[in-house]
Amino acid sequence: MYYWTNELWRLAYLVGGLGLLGWVLGEPGWGLAAGLGLFVFIHLRHLRQLYVWLALHPGQEPPAGTGVWGDLFDRLYRYQKGQRQTQERLRDIIRRVQDSSEAMRDSVVMLDSRGDLEWWNSAAERMLGLQTRHDRGQHITNLLRDPRFIEYFNARDYREPLTLPSPIREDLFLQFQITLYGDNERLVMARDITRLHRLEQMRRDFVANVSHELRTPLTVLAGYLETYGEYADQLPPRWQRGISQMQQQTSRMQNLVTDLLLLSRLETDHQVEQAEPIDIAGLLDSVRQDAESLSGGRHTLRVDVTETARLSGVEQEIRSAISNLAFNAVRYTPEDSTITLRWRAYRNGAALEVEDDGEGIDPVHIPRLTERFYRVDKGRSAETGGTGLGLAIVKHVLLRHDAQLEIDSRPGEGALFRCAFPDERLVKDTGESAQTASRRMAQAAGSGQLPQ
Fold first, then answer.
1. DSSP string for 184-199
2. By percentage, how much of the chain surpasses pLDDT 70?
3. Each residue of 315-326: pLDDT tens digit?
4. Domain regions of the chain by residue span
5. Is the pLDDT of residue 434 over 80?
6. 349-356 and 404-409: which strand pairing?
7. Between 173 and which of 60, 112, 160, 197 could a Cys-Cys bridge form, CB atoms 3.0 to 4.6 Å apart?
8. Within 13 A of 142's CA, how many CA atoms are on the CB side?
9. Average pLDDT for 298-323
């Protein structure tokens, strides 16, 4: 406001003074016009100085100005200086981030919203083979062409990392983790886990080899103990008790070795057998009969089938998974409990479920239930006769069938173990309508005879 008032006074002085001079000379109109022209000339001159300064010499001191122009030059200079300082701080932060990324052993790759390469550190050049001269601006899937990475990248579900061999070295194993940030931009990090991968492979080989080597001596022991058991009535009572206990422990060891070998095969054999349509209703009825034999009449087992579609998969593996869930329910639920084996529609696919009304599980244990040898109640391990590998086997079987294991349980409210399969794994029955098939299965289940 102060400078605006000064400009008005300056205009008044120029126009008034030259107008008065023109009135003295007998040309007041020309005097007024000369005053206005001079005022406009002064502003145009300052405007040209501003343009030359901003366009040609923005880094130099601002030109000298009077009145409102001097204040404008000073304000623009201070603003420009502040912007330069801010930009310099940002550049310094970017340099520090890049320097710290360069110091990392892990690969760091920055992608724009389209998935094109923007920047990467030197570790990415060593691990992924990226080249600054040729690859900048390329889409990430043009360089990392493994179908598993492309599927992982496009799925946009980055909660779990992806392990793949390096695209330039087959003996180098990398763990990829993608993070979304900003305006749909992505940060790809690749970590060298070759040593961990080799240790894990050594562990698997060790477990598989030891388990395989134990089968023969355990078979010999079981055979002799069975022979001795046939003549147990001729032995002293103390020997009878010892032979009985040895038979129980040998049988337990054989079950453990069998589960270890199965788990080792599921972990190491990435080639899934040819999938075939599985009659889930018949499979559940067979598992129910096996579970009833294990229960010895202490539990009530039911089969509930409402989904008409069959499941595409390896029947032996699916049987192993559902049997483990059913046998666990028999072992860990009290007498007179009801155990239900269910096949029903779930979300966009279908689910195999094993539900019981037993004691339930504390939610704190649920995230670790699929770990090998993890037990909720370690004091009951010998009593139940389980190996502690059942849920680990279930987890790996489901991974091989594109499915997920969901566990829902609360103390005192029973437990529900759900194997959720996607729609791609279902084989629709085109021979009859879904309503007809559902009615037929419901009638068969009500009569106790499931369709085969």
1. TEEEEEEEE-HHHHHH
2. 79
3. 988 999 999 999
4. 2-94, 104-192, 198-268, 276-447
5. no
6. unpaired
7. 197
8. 12
9. 91
With 0-12 CB in 10 A as exposed, 13-18 as middle and 19+ as buried, what is 311? buried
Surface-to-core class of residue 364, CB atoms within 10 Å of its CB (0-12 exposed, 13-18 middle, 19+ buried) = exposed
Rounded to a whole number of angstroms, the CA Rg of the chain reads 40
Q: Give the residue, 323 or 34, on which the prediction is more confident.
A: 323
Mean pLDDT of 252-270: 77
Are 65 and 72 in contact by the 8 Å Cβ rule? The answer is yes
Strands of the sheet with 426-427, listed across from one edge: 276-278, 310-313, 426-427
Strands of the 404-409 sheet, one edge to the other: 300-305, 338-346, 349-356, 415-421, 404-409
Q: What percent of the chain has pLDDT over 90?
A: 26
Domain 104-192 has CATH 3.20.20.70: no
Phi-psi region of 350 (alpha: psi -120 to 50; beta: other; left: phi over 0): beta
Q: What six digits make up the tokens of 367?
A: 């995230």
Which CATH number applies to 276-447: 1.10.8.60, 3.30.470.30, 3.30.565.10, 3.40.50.620? 3.30.565.10
Q: What's the topology of domain 198-268?
A: Helix Hairpins (1.10.287)
